[in-house]
Amino acid sequence: MLPVAELRGLTPRDLNDRILTSTQPLLLRGLVAQWPMVRAALESQEAASAYLKRFYAGGPVVAMLGLPDIGGRFFYNDDISGFNFRPVHAPLNGVLDELEAHRNDEQPPAIYVGSTTIDACLPGFRSENDVDLGKDRDPLASIWIGNRTRIAAHYDAPDNLACVTAGRRRFTLFPPDQLPNLYVGPLDFTPAGQAISLVDLHAPDFERFPRFAEALEHAQVAEMEPGDALFIPSMWWHHVEALEAFNVLVNYWWRQSPHYMDTPTNALMYAIMTIRDLPPEQRKAWEGLFRHYVFEQDDDTAAHIPPAAQRMLAPMTEDMARALRAQLLKRMNR
């Protein structure tokens, strides 16, 4: 595995389109090192917890709890009929106190608060700890809190800037073309919303998953300290390990497509339902249609149609997207 390419000496003001539209991961050493949250975490876990509690709005958060014997790996149960953890609704203050109580345990229970919207849970936090991604991006800012945990390799459709603010993390990333070698589990029954690789990165079973050896040859690794940030391009698979008894990560998700465009995941699900099980020749014909109208679409695709008559073949607009969505809903509800 190769290290992720690094950039040093940057501040949040130095982020630009070259970085934020990169098609390769980038480790941005010390990007948010001046955040008050990072400085509090470097002082102590107690100081970091107290800093977070200053902003806590009081509502419950969703915490994932696993027994000590899962070793921090949030995953399925043995037959993939369920999971090896349980979600609970709890006050954030209580979760922070529980993390403190188990800080010195040799085998602590796995505790993980994932993808919690900062502005709702910790209003005011971003006034002191934030990255300005520019007027053309409207990111969703989330916080992730836990002890030594592991999240299996998965992808996200948006671009992602992940900032370590407490503890240490290790990201292992795989390019999108390694999908066939990652042995991905169910698409519609997942631990936290995204489909995940079934391979245990710490103990890969190469007899069961032989192609994973090929994926490892293309993997990139980022070892991150407090204040470091990692840019993860859209659709890159990433396995995430939190390496300390107390870890906090802040991340920003945004899409390079207009806000009115739907997620491609819905198109994938619909294609599985409508195309995958067709006879081979029909599938091949639909493959050609998708290639022509989607994957290889260019200015010539609809050039033979008068512009006013191109309709959905013209460049997509918000009004057109709204009309198409209504048309699809009408068809699906028949």
UniProtKB/TrEMBL annotation:
Matching InterPro entries: Cupin_8, JmjC_dom
Domain of life: Bacteria
Domain (JmjC): residue spans on this chain: 111-269
Pfam families referenced in this protein's UniProt entry, alphabetically: Cupin_8 (PF13621)
Protein name: Cupin-like domain-containing protein
UniProt source species: Pseudoduganella lutea
Taxonomic classification: Bacteria, Pseudomonadati, Pseudomonadota, Betaproteobacteria, Burkholderiales
